[in-house]
């Protein structure tokens, strides 16, 4: 058993953990990241790559609540549940339903909008600092509405974003066509976020960030923390082959953070929204920017040398294997948009760390500032990584 002592330990080497470690290191702290796998190989690898500063609306809304039963029970819907997981997920679902009520939804939207307000700027800065600017694209992002009814039904969302100052343009079907000529004609219209930026290779971003962290002096330990407990002068973590003592700890283990928080006496209603992607290798993807056909609940993402089709939500916990049916539905729906798509080159499933209110947990633990929580980022963890790092840094500096 190797013994290690450090100033700060970060549990989890996803985008949240590594961005936080980098920031703490630039504050002059000694930092160790504990991660059992290649850093950035969890949810931070397989996402859609959008810096979604426009995504102020939580997953739980009054409209979703109205259709919740039919959405969940249809195994092919963009928001489905594995029936076997229902009993374990019931408490989370009850909280989710509550957080979807009008007053909670309004409050959650306001908290998310606040967190997202400078997300693009913060990423532009961080990307320049770590040498990842060439992996950024700035062609905006496009939502598609298949029918006039769907376009009309989204009017309150358009207004809400406008009220929060999100830059957006409503597009007619013809305008959608001239922006993305290879898309089939939609009858409803489009919503264009002209200032949105996106990464063209999230996995590569993680490799570049890991290398920058190592250059800055962050140490990475390949191990998985099994127990965590407070001692008189700090926090003790036991991992398979290491005993690690730190003055302070950041829990950034994504969807796996709930058990660690519980060991410190805090019950956090964290679960996972499982997401999937398919990739099609090709030189020139058929879209110029991330495009979201809203009725399918996924993004078509132009990435380096490939098209990635990423998204949808499956509630099913972190234990169950990937569900082939979800991949079949993703493929069938992707082919509804681009019928000539061949067989996918690869597929992936990952765990969004999700709170019922879609608001991440970024705060000191109730037991003290020696443990800081930084998890639960759901659909916007890539977007919020620099902001989270800044918040954790000020918590630990106080
Ligand atoms: C299909 C899909 C599309 C998405 N698209 C977007 C998007 O376009 N924009 C956006 O902003 N977000 C998007 N997201 C969400 C985003 O990917 C996540 O919110 C984000 O990656 C979460 O980062 P994380 O570091 O918290 O978690 P992770 O990347 O999962 O990292 C957590 C790490 O903790 C490690 N770990 C777990 N347990 C332990 C332990 N006991 N000890 C040590 N280490 C441990 C794991 O191995 C893992 O590497 C998407 C997600 C999915 C699934």
What does the largest sheet look like? 8 strands, mixed
Distance between the termini: 34 Å
Report Rg.
21 Å
Percent of residues in helices: 25-40%
Estimate what percentage of residues fall within beta strands: 25-35%
Annotation field: number of helices: 14
- How many domains make up the 3D coordinates? 1
Morphology: globular
Structural class: alpha/beta
Q: Which architecture would the CATH scheme give at its second level?
A: 3-Layer(bba) Sandwich
Low-confidence stretches: none
Mean of residue pLDDT values:
96
CATH topology: FAD/NAD(P)-binding domain
Organism: Rhizobium pisi
Domain FAD dependent oxidoreductase: 7-393
Keywords: Oxidoreductase
InterPro entries: FAD-dep_OxRdtase, FAD/NAD-bd_sf
Q: What can you tell me about this protein's structure?
A:
It is built from 14 helices and 20 strands. The two termini are 34 Å apart. It has helices at 15-26, 43-46, 62-66, 68-73, 86-99, 102-116, 119-130, 148-153, 155-163, 173-179, 202-216, 257-263, 324-337, 381-397; strands at 2-11, 31-34, 50-51, 79-81, 136-137, 141-145, 169-171, 189-193, 197-199, 219-221, 225-231, 234-239, 242-251, 271-281, 291-293, 298-303, 306-315, 346-354, 361-365, 368-375. The protein is of the alpha/beta class and 398 residues long. The model has no long low-confidence stretch (mean pLDDT 96). The chain has a single domain (2-140, 195-397), classed as FAD/NAD(P)-binding domain, CATH 3.50.50. The protein is globular, with a radius of gyration of 21 Å. The chain binds flavin-adenine dinucleotide (FAD). Flavin-adenine dinucleotide (FAD) is lined by residues 11-17, 34-37, 41-44, 46-50, 52, 224-225, 252-254, 256, 275, 277, 310-311, 350, 352-353, 375, 377-383. It is an enzyme of class 1 (oxidoreductase). This is D-amino-acid dehydrogenase. GO terms for molecular function: oxidoreductase activity. InterPro entries: FAD-dep_OxRdtase (IPR006076), FAD/NAD-bd_sf (IPR036188).
């Amino acid at each position: 058993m190797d013994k290690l002592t450090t100033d700060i330990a970060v549990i989890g080497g996803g985008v949240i953990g590594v961005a936080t470690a980098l920031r703490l290191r630039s504050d002059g702290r000694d930092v160790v990241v504990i991660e059992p796998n290649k850093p950035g190989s969890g949810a931070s690898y397989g996402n859609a790559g959008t810096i979604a500063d426009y995504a102020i609306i939580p997953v739980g809304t009054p409209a979703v609540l109205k259709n919740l039963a039919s959405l969940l029970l249809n195994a092919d819907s963009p928001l489905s549940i594995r029936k076997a997981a229902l009993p374990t997920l019931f408490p989370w679902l009850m909280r989710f339903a509550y957080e979807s009520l009008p007053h909670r939804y309004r409050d959650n939207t306001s908290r998310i909008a606040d967190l997202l307000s400078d997300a693009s700027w913060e990423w532009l800065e961080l990307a320049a600092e770590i040498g990842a600017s060439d992996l950024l694209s700035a062609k905006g992002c496009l939502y598609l509405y298949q029918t006039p009814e769907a376009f009309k039904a989204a009017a309150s969302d358009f207004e809400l974003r406008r009220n929060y100052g999100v830059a957006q343009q409503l597009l007619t079907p013809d305008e959608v066509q001239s922006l993305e000529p290879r898309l089939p004609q939609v009858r409803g219209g489009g919503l264009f976020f002209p200032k949105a930026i996106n990464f063209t290779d999230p996995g590569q971003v993680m490799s570049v960030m890991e290398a920058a962290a190592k250059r800055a002096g962050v140490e990475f330990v390949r191990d998985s923390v099994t127990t965590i407990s407070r001692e008189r002068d700090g926090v003790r973590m036991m991992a398979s082959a290491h005993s690690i003592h730190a003055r302070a700890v950041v829990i950034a283990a994504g969807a796996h953070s709930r058990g660690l928080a519980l060991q410190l006496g805090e019950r956090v209603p964290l679960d996972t929204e499982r997401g999937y992607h398919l990739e099609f290798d090709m030189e020139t993807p058929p879209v110029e920017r991330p495009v979201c056909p809203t009725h399918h609940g996924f993004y078509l993402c132009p990435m380096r040398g490939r098209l990635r089709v990423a998204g949808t939500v499956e509630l099913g916990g972190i234990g169950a294997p990937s569900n082939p049916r979800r991949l079949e539905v993703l493929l069938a729906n992707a082919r509804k948009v681009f019928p000539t798509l061949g067989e996918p080159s690869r597929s992936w499933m990952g765990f969004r760390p999700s709170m019922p209110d879609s608001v991440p947990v970024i705060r000191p633990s109730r037991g003290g500032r020696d443990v800081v929580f930084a998890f639960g980022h759901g659909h916007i963890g890539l977007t919020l990584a620099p902001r989270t790092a800044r918040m954790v840094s000020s918590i630990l500096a106080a």
